[in-house]
Structure formats: structure tokens, C-alpha cells
Amino acid sequence: MTDACAAAFPALRCVAMPRVQRRFLLGSRWTSLRPLDRSGGECHFEVLEIGRDELVMRAVLTRRDYRIAVAALDDVAAWATGWIST
């Protein structure tokens, strides 16, 4: 429970929602805030496949496919939703 949530609703148990909802992942676009490949400068990706614990993302610039854990997208320091300039 976050402090702000606890302060606003002391009688309720606040549960943080996950940032990534699996049903909306297919076809979604992401920006890696830490490029996966330094030589190619790949930072913009699109989700192609969703597995049980991992997903396949394709780099827009080079068309290379990467397998990453679904939970990795919850890291706000590493991934941002949409395509943004880094």
C-alpha cells in the first residue's frame, strides 16, 4: 500500500495495479530507455507475440526480434509506453 493511498483511504486496502495489462500488449509500442543494442541504437519496439512469461518484441529500426520477460516492462526506468524521443 502506498503512503498516499493509505492517507487518503485509511479504512481501505489499496492495491497497486500492474502497469502492463496482458490483454493490451499485442501490437503495443514501447521505447527502451536503455537501448538493447548499443551498436544499432535500437530503442523503439513493437510487441509481436505474447507467451506465458515472455514476449517477442521487434525493433522498428533493424527489424531484429528480442525475447524479454513480460515483467520487465513494469520497470519504468527501463521501458516507456509508446514511441518517445530518448
Total of domains: 1
Order of helix and strand elements from N to C terminus: HEEEEE
Tell me the strand order in the biggest sheet.
Answer: 4-3-2-1-5
CATH architecture: Roll
Low-pLDDT runs: none
**Could you tell me the mean pLDDT?**
80
Q: What Rg, in angstroms, do the CA atoms define?
A: 16 Å
Number of helices: 1
Structural class: mainly beta
Describe the largest sheet. 5 strands, antiparallel
Globular, elongated, flat, extended or rod-shaped: what is the shape?
globular
Would you give an account of this structure?
With 86 residues, the chain is mainly β. It has a single domain, classed as SH3 type barrels (Roll), CATH 2.30.30. It contains 1 helix and 5 strands; from the N terminus they run αβββββ. A 5-stranded antiparallel beta sheet has the order 4-3-2-1-5, with no helix packed on it. β2 (44-50) and β3 form a beta hairpin. The longest helix has 6 residues, at 3-8.
In short:
The protein is mainly beta and 86 residues long. It has one helix and five strands; from the N terminus they run αβββββ.
Write the layout of secondary structure elements.
Layout: H1 3-8, E1 29-32, E2 44-50, E3 54-59, E4 65-69, E5 79-81
Antiparallel strand pairs: 1-2, 1-5, 2-3, 3-4
